[in-house]
Amino acid sequence: xxxxxxxxxxxxxxxxxxxxxxxxxxxxxxxxxxxxxxxxxxxxxxxxxxxxxxxxxxxxxxxxxxxxxxxxxxxxxxxxxxxxxxxxxxxxxxxxxxxxxxxxxxxxxxxxxxxxxxxxxxxxxxxxxxxxxxxxxxxxxxxxxxxxxxxxxxxxxxxxxxxxxxxxxxxxxxxxxxxxxxxxxxxxxxxxxxxxxxxxxxxxxxxxxxxxxxxxxxxxxxxxxxxxxxxxxxxxxxxxxxxxxxxxxxxxxxxxxxxxxxxxxxxxxxxxxxxxxxxxxxxxxxxxxxxxxxxxxxxxxxxxxxxxxxxxxxxxxxxxxxxxxxxxxxxxxxxxxxxxxxxxxxxxxxxxxxxxxxxxxxxxxxxxxxxxxxxxxxxxxxxxxxxxxxxxxxxxxxxxxxxxxxxxxxxxxxxxxxxxxxxxxxxxxxxxxxxxxxxxxxxxxxxxxxxxxxxxxxxxxxxxxxxxxxxxxxxxxxxxxxxxxxxxxxxxxxxxxxxxxxxxxxxxxxx
Length: 511
Ligand code: UN1
Fold this sequence. Notes:
- This protein is about 40% helix and about 20% strand.
- By secondary structure, it is of the alpha/beta class.
- It has two domains: about 220 residues, Aldehyde Dehydrogenase, Chain A, domain 1; about 180 residues, Aldehyde Dehydrogenase, Chain A, domain 2, CATH 3.40.309.
- 2-aminohexanedioic acid binds next to loops.
């Protein structure tokens, strides 16, 4: 029998699984469909993390209605006061960091040190956005006319819809929710169906901090049933998606029809260039962390390593030797380096790319196989996988895999490397290892991507800088930093004429 528990999660057996309801207008409510779905641990599918509501349009409508009535009051709460609640939420998250990290490893699979980082990223975002409550700067400028005052202020957009991914279930939810609520918006969030518990944990910190009912609402379920009606809803004025480019095309198309703000954070095929003069130890370390951290399941994962010919053989040899030693397993074991794929479908995709790479003629020198014996038998594990002598045009060098499959490509030098790096559909993150400052600066200028790292891998963005990318990675918006404020506010320009006469801009002038 399922029990209905809303307190902290505990490890429950299958028959006692915790049931999560939707969170609408401060109440826990069952979905209109009466159906649910299971959230299972990808490292051990016998472990049922929770049972969640399989929602539909009627649930989205109810959540939007709640957000709409909450907006009438929330937008009038002074921003510094809204921000104080967010600051308090950060402190609550600090107290619960370990508990949330452990639950996230159970539902998502990545290793504990990474899930601690995921919770920390939400804490960082909360502190950063709390500070924004006393800034939200806008220009005050001189008017061209006498006795006239001019300024621009940021106003909330209104009701915001969020569709979040499973790879950073708390961090990415926080990137969206926190600036939105500090700016005075109200929200409906649809967490990824693989990792809804972490979003519940985040939102629980907001409500415990005193964020009023209806300001943040959660509706769980699947994309076509929940994400699509959320994007289509006429009262939703902004929709923010982090997901695949394929889903981005759908959501972007829907949003365009009703002129919604639409922020799309999509795929990546991120290059790391290693030049002959690089610190090889550092580059190898970085390439392993960037390639296999989060089981390669980051939009920013280092999925292509472009190595100059002078050090190519040495790099490959040492990189592969290290990759072979990575310990794969359940992320709750602190000695494990790499956890499972998120689900069976993702694992099948990863394995299918091993086949594709082989058929294309790339040389498989590490891994490539599923791990399903012994301790691995109940999870979605595979070996860290490395292809070398990859041609830049191959599918494994062009398409986002979202798994632990790294392609190593040889290059002649900086120019060639940058051309290979840029010659893809995406433009999220990029990196270069070199000790030559001139080359580093040329790369900072010429890599056509939203993020460039020097002497660090392609992962590791901090919350106060813009996050996002070029080309098929998005539609020009940025999360993090002030980029988020631009998305969650509308500029309003205000002119105050205190001349007591009708003054005509552009016309009343002496030429
Ligand atoms: C992602 O790649 O999906 O930059 C998000 C990083 C993290 C966020 C990654 N702070 O690696």
